[in-house]
Amino acid sequence: MSSPIRNLVSGSRSAGLQHFRASERWVSRVPCTITTGYQVKEFLARYPGILEEYLIENVSTEFLEGILIRKRAESRKPTDVGATSDRERSQLKLERMYTEIGIDKLARNICECSSDEEILEKIYEAAGILGAIVEAEKRSMYMTDVNNIDMYRYVPEQKSHRKHVGPMGLKLTVSAHVAFTKQSVNVADLPQDSRFPKGVGLGDDEAHHVIALPVLLETGRCLAVLEFTRSWERDPFSKREYEMAHAVLCWVASCVQKLKMNKLLKIQARLNQYLLQSARSLFDDMQNIDLLITKIMTFTKELVSADRCSLFLVDQVRKELVAEFFDEGKSSEDGTPLYTKTSQIRFSVEKGISGYVARTGLSVNIRDANSDERFNPEVDNKTGYRTQSVLCLPIHGKTGVISVMMLLNKQEERFFTEEDERSFQSFSVYSALALQYARIFNQLTHQQAKYKVAMDVLEFHIKGPDSEVQELRKDPYIPDDKIPYAFWSFDFFINDDIVPDLPKLFIKICTDIFGPKQFDLTKLCRFIITVRKNYRPVTYHNWQHGFTVAHSLWRIVKLCDNAGFDKVEKLALIFAGISHDIDHRGYNNDFFRKLQQPLAALYSTSTMEQHHYRQTVTILHAEGHDIFSSLSSEDHSRLLELIRLNILATDLSLYFGNQKFLAGLSAKGEFSFESNEHRKALSSIIMTAADLCAISKPWETQRPTIDNLYKEFYEQGDIEKRKGFKPMPMMDRLTQEEVPQQQIGFIDFICKPMYTTLSAILPETMPLLTGCLEVKERWKIVISEKETKKSTLIKSNV
After folding, report:
1. Nearest-CA neighbor of 410 among 431, 386, 391, 438?
2. CATH assignment of 286-444?
3. Pick among 3.65.10.10, 2.40.30.10, 1.10.1300.10, 3.30.70.60: CATH of 466-783
4. How far are the Cα atoms of 637, 659, 665, 679, 681 from residue 675, in angstroms, in the given order?
5. CA 455 → CA 450, 528, 626, distances in Å?
6. Is 175 helix (H, G, I), strand (E, B) or coil?
7. 3-state percent helix, strand, coil for the chain, nearest multiple of 5
């Protein structure tokens, strides 16, 4: 309402009221409760349009001009000595604010606050000072909900300091509008302002002029709203007063922001220190996962100011949550939280708030636990502890949620905030890393313990029976008259009669090359009996096959004694041969890969060959099997490496590179026994030649061997078919008619080139080439006979 009209009402009270009451039409519009001049003034202040309409229709021009003359005279009177302008009055107020009231000291005090509650107290104190400066009749402060939903009036004399006044938003109260828009307002006429139909948060009907200012943080969040009011009898807040209040409050907000940043930096510094301590704990004492868990619990409590906390590990296999430490609110003398360790408590991930977090990976922030149906009050009923607010958070790992942190009762506040959740999210990344590695380390330690136990059991079971060892030790040498004549040639074939004498024949091989004093005879007997036991009873890759390969290697080494191999290389060939297929399961490497067997995961290349070598080393390291103990440490290490290379060479996928390399050297006449590289390649080819020596045996013994080989192939093919895989043709029993062609192809592609190269370097091995070529011709005869028989059958049918 303008000054002339207001003075019309207040300065000419009797005349104005007389004219007002003179008209029955206007009197009928006045509420019956208006009985005093003050109530008339309040009514006209709220509804100035009625007064204006009345004056225009019922008051004379002379009457209004007289009032205006008196009003102008009043406005020319000095109002304050030494302050003749708004600017000068504002300057005086600012000086008073800095000197008498001391708001600069208050700003410094804000920066020294240690808790959010202290910050609110200082802001409320600043509101009191600012209200005095702008000469407000009343002041109020409203806090905003951290989730930007509700508003609370700050009432310091009440214990909770809060009184809910409604939601934030438009078309509500002035403070709700300011909190929602985050913009200050200067309302000159509250009743007539359509933006605020609910007035002020206090519900004060006398509030007519309002300044409302938001306290904004750097993040954009409105922390609080300060509201200053005057009644309609006072002048509205001037533009300068509004600007001065706004400027001062921005200064206060900057102080609050600085304090928040300082607190954040302190938290970050503590977090960094914790991470360093965790890293030290992780690498210095990774076995102590209990210490790591309690550290995570302690720091999380401090990080979000929780009263109690629990940490649950997720058992992915059993789909359960596991807890061992419990927070009963106890502390040590230095204030460090103490946790009670009990036997494991397990419960399904389908239960409770923590189970929900474990299943979904989502955080849960509950302000009133007892009003949430997911909360189980049984623990509170048993312990007497009163749970009010709950913050339950997931700790994510590579495989999903690996643990759940539950925090109870925010200290100094009614509930946990979104800021608490964000702080924990940053910290949880490092907690997950620490927990993951601690868990892996503990699993590794556990697996190592299991491995040692398994090795003890394995060592017991892989050892050959002592009775068999003692029997062989009593009579280790086979008489010459019992040695088959073919034993001294590549044509040697193992029949059922000779099988029991194979351990003695292996001792014969060893003493023939290395002499009778190279080995401890008891250890050698134990070794060969154990090796025999560790071959599986498959149809082809069995103990007899292992001995046959060792025999072929012995013949090559014996016949080529002057070739240039030293003792260690000879030992590596013979013992790699006897051990090269230990624990063979009757399946090739591709089978383990296709069916995703554990061995394929353990050894990505040359799966079975690496397994054979591992088993060989296990036997050599078993008690009483150290047959190479007489060697120097250097020769012993070299021998094991050569055995490894020789066994791996029996993987046909490695043959082609060795064959190409040696064939090139042979064709150019560049092969030299002086070269370690050349000798290693030659040893690899020798291993392959011995492994395939069955292809060079006389026909009458070679054919039964091939039959056993294909039985093994067909067993693998049958399994692959059942698993939904298509087997190779040679492993498909439906292609049995193609065996002769398959064998001829195998000789042409693998055997003939290999034995040709080998005989070119070592001419003494020519019988192997000759034998495989003779077998090839016999397969051709088989094919021819089948074709003749088929043709005869066709003619007879015709």
Report:
1. 391
2. 3.30.450.40
3. 1.10.1300.10
4. 20, 17, 12, 6, 10
5. 8, 20, 16
6. helix
7. 60, 10, 30
CA 349 and chain centroid, separation: 19
Asked if 350 and 332 count as a contact pair (C-beta separation under 8 A), the reply is no
* Alpha carbons 368 and 375: distance in angstroms, whole number: 10
Q: Hey, what are 330's tokens?
A: 């106890």
639: how many CB neighbours lie within 10 A of its CB?
20
Residue among 758, 677, 743 nearest 713 (CA): 743
Of the candidates 396, 361, 388, which has an alpha carbon nearest to the alpha carbon of residue 372? 388
Catalytic annotation, pick one of 208, 541, 551, 678: 541
Collapsing DSSP states into helix, strand and coil, what is residue 306? strand
Residues 179/225, Cβ–Cβ less than 8 Å: yes
- Could you report the per-residue pLDDT of 724-774, keeping only the tens digit for each? 999 999 999 999 999 999 999 999 999 999 999 999 999 999 999 999 999
With a cut of 90, say whether residue 578 has pLDDT above it.
Answer: yes
CATH number of 86-264: 3.30.450.40
**Domain locations in the chain?**
3-75, 86-264, 286-444, 466-783
What's the pLDDT tens digit per position in 414-468? 778 777 787 777 677 767 777 777 777 777 776 777 667 666 666 666 788 999 9
Structural contact between residues 687 and 580, judged by C-beta atoms closer than 8 angstroms: yes
Q: 44-53, 496-505, 588-597 — which one is most confidently predicted on average? A: 496-505
The answer to whether 611 is a known catalytic residue is no
86-264 and 286-444: identical CATH topology: yes
Helix (H) or strand (E) holding 276: helix 239-284
Between the CA of residue 268 and those of 265, 271, 303, 423, 612, what are the distances in Å? Answer: 5, 5, 10, 9, 55
